[in-house]
Write a structure and sequence with these properties.
By secondary structure, the chain is of the alpha+beta class. The protein has a domain of 100 residues: Alpha-Beta Complex (Lambda Exonuclease, Chain A), CATH 3.90.320.10. It is built from 4 helices and 7 strands; from the N terminus they run αβββββαββαα.
């Protein structure tokens, strides 16, 4: 009798484990992210936040939200809190910078990266053309006068409130006149 009880308990645990595994796989598929192992995370949710990647040649520093290793390749993933019907150009360039940083630090060129918006995931190929656009943008930014005053580029009070420079900004939209 005792052996039967243990057998039933063991079978129940195996079935329960399988159910939880299937649920976790279904949730992972819902994210739109590829199967793989999380190799880097900047969210602090998985592990201690890691050091940023660095490219001394181009002067780039960055921390992608995630780097997933899938089928022997590294895939940077940038997670955005907004919805989008197409990827924003600034987000594509941010992802391209992460691809460049992974290439420099790992010695392997990523083939693609992912931008995950609230409503969908966009796969961005890291092509030679995208790398050229990134290099051009980096050079353009480097050529700008760092002492020049840059005007606010939007009319959204909520963006101003969430900005990290709001305390020191004389162009805030919530300022009294």
């Amino acid at each position: 009798m005792r052996l039967e009880l243990w057998s039933i308990l063991f079978a129940a645990l195996v079935i329960l484990s399988a159910v939880f595994w299937l649920i976790s796989r279904a949730r992972m598929k819902q994210t739109g992210l590829p199967d793989g192992r999380v190799r880097y995370s900047d969210t602090g949710a998985w592990r201690k936040v890691e050091k940023p990647y660095f490219d001394g040649e181009w002067g780039l520093v960055g921390k992608p939200d995630y780097v997933i290793e899938s089928k022997g390749t590294l895939i940077p993933v940038e997670v955005k809190s907004t919805s989008a019907e197409s990827p924003y150009e600034s987000h594509v360039m941010q992802l391209a910078a992460y691809c460049r940083l992974l290439q420099v630090t790992s010695g392997h060129r990523p083939v693609r990266g992912l931008i995950k918006y609230r409503n969908r995931v966009f796969e961005i190929e890291y092509t030679a053309e995208l790398e050229r656009k990134l290099k051009s943008l980096v050079n353009e930014v480097r050529s700008l006068d760092p002492t020049s005053d840059v005007p606010r580029s939007h009319h959204s009070a909520s963006r101003c409130r969430s900005c990290g420079y709001a305390e020191n900004c004389d162009q805030r939209l919530d300022q009294v006149g």
